[in-house]
Specification:
The protein has about 450 residues and is of the alpha+beta class. The chain has 2 domains: about 170 residues, no CATH class; about 210 residues, Orthogonal Bundle (hpI Integrase, Chain A). The protein contains 17 helices and 8 strands. It has a 3-stranded antiparallel beta sheet with strand order 1-2-3. Helix 10 crosses helix 13.
């Protein structure tokens, strides 16, 4: 059984009080408690003499620490946690809430160091300075870790990131926070990356933290929703001035109508963003940042859009070919709105356009607080990212993959393939089979064939 003893190692007036944890005959840990006392006030019981009010308070704190360390020692030994001097120091700091902000052996502090020094950090390829999206991802991950620390009531050190720790964190992401498989996997990937970054700055980490397994949803479990050319035409042709139709929608959806302040002008603005988005295949943020400054014409008068993608900082040039898209960009370039608002308006636009086929997809269930697979009208799944996916799914039937990658900015063909609506793609292939069969048989005339019955009659 583990034993705890408090001791002094100095005869100076303000001697440091140490805690020693003896786990076995060969394993013993020792750390400063952060408290100090005059040796003359230190009793033979290895606790302060109860002669002064301050000594009584000090005794209370030391007894709290003794209980806290023993309780956590038993739990962490059972869970396979590494028990060492860092572990003991973490117990002391956690109980008395004494984390030093500059101590980068703590996960959150190292994340803050990355964020604070973002402009001088080196990216892949040797470029200096992290881009805006990367900094945003670090900030989001830091907030998530702080929330997790609050749930487990302790600060996380790199030397605590063992396999049992990662399994508990994964369980919290999936079962407590109800995050998607992909989002949970991305957070484990981020944890692994931060641990590797810490090691580069000579912060001790666990061997397991370098091999943390991340994951994503299997292709068979992914439901990608896209708009076909026919559905895009439906959106293009829907009449928002139809007062009866709009009145019925507002009556059926009073809360959404109030939230969005739905008007024909706002719906038309969202419609134009949808049409441009499906035609140029950019991410929602890049789409909504388009201004007249992005427009350029070549010597033959063809329209180009010059963009720098926010996520990758990649400069791309797009050829705008559809006449009605050119007309929108030149004469009716929509007003910028928040991406979340565009997502909400897109559902309304698509519903009014009659895109209401029942399809499978995952939606958040407010009762269970989980994303669940079910049959829902298609318009309920449409968001700004569907525009980019629609572009890829529609164009891959006619364009070569490299041309699509030049537009989307993807660096790998495998990444482009994750945007293709494979379920609809299979239907397309089946339709092509039918067309091929019809083409082969449409001009052929049925022929009579004489079958002999084996007699001379």
């Amino acid at each position: 059984m583990a034993k705890i003893k408090f001791l002094l190692q100095s005869k100076s007036e303000n001697a440091q009080i140490y805690i020693r944890v003896s786990i076995s005959q060969k394993v013993s840990l020792k750390k400063k408690t952060g408290f100090s006392i005059s040796p003359k006030d230190w009793g033979e019981t290895n606790f302060p003499k109860q002669t002064k009010p301050e000594n009584k308070l000090l005794s209370t704190n030391l007894k709290k620490l003794e209980t806290f360390v023993l309780e956590n020692l038993n739990k962490d030994l059972a869970n396979g946690t590494l028990i060492d001097a860092y572990w003991l120091e973490n117990q002391i700091n956690t109980l008395f809430k004494r984390v030093v902000k500059t101590d980068t052996t703590f996960l959150v502090n190292h994340l803050q160091t990355i964020i604070d020094n973002a402009n001088t950090r080196t990216k892949k390829g040797g470029e200096i300075g992290l881009d805006k999206n990367t900094i945003k991802n670090y900030n989001t991950f830091k907030k998530l870790i702080i929330e997790y620390q609050e749930s487990i009531k302790k600060q996380i050190q790199f030397l605590e990131i063992t396999k049992p720790f990662v399994e508990k964190f994964k369980n919290w992401l999936i079962n407590t926070k109800n995050y998607t498989t992909n989002y949970s996997g991305k957070n484990l990937e981020m944890l692994k990356a931060v641990c590797r970054d810490a090691e580069k700055t000579e912060i001790p980490i666990t061997p397991y933290s370098k091999i943390i397994e991340h994951f994503r949803e299997k292709d068979k479990d992914r439901y990608i929703h896209t708009l076909s050319y026919q559905e895009i035409e439906q959106i293009r042709n829907v009449d928002f001035t139809n007062e009866e139709q709009l009145k019925d929608f507002k009556k059926e959806n009073p809360e959404l109508t109030k939230k969005l302040s739905i008007t024909p002008e706002k719906l038309n603005n969202a419609r134009n963003w949808i049409l441009i988005g499906c035609a140029i295949g950019q991410r929602g943020g890049d789409l909504l940042n388009i201004t007249p400054d992005n427009i350029r014409y070549n010597l033959d008068g063809f329209m180009y859009l010059d963009l720098i993608q926010e996520k990758t900082d990649k400069a791309i040039t797009l050829s705008v070919n559809e006449k009605y898209i050119i007309d929108i960009i030149e004469n009716r370039l929509p007003k910028k709105i928040q991406e979340q608002k565009l997502n909400e308006y897109s559902k309304v636009v698509c519903k009014l356009a009659g895109i209401n086929e029942l399809i499978k997809g995952k939606k958040h269930n407010t009762e269970t607080n989980r994303r669940e697979l079910g049959l829902h009208p298609k318009y309920e799944f449409i968001t700004s990212h569907c525009f980019r996916r629609s572009f890829v799914s529609n164009k891959h039937k006619d364009w070569n993959i490299q041309t699509i990658m030049d537009v989307t900015g993807h660096s790998k063909e495998s990444l482009v393939n994750t945007y293709i609506n494979k379920r609809e793609d299979k239907d397309l292939k089946a339709d092509l089979q039918r067309t091929e069969y019809q083409n082969q048989t449409k001009d052929k005339k049925p022929q009579l064939k004489l079958i002999k019955n084996g007699t001379n009659d």
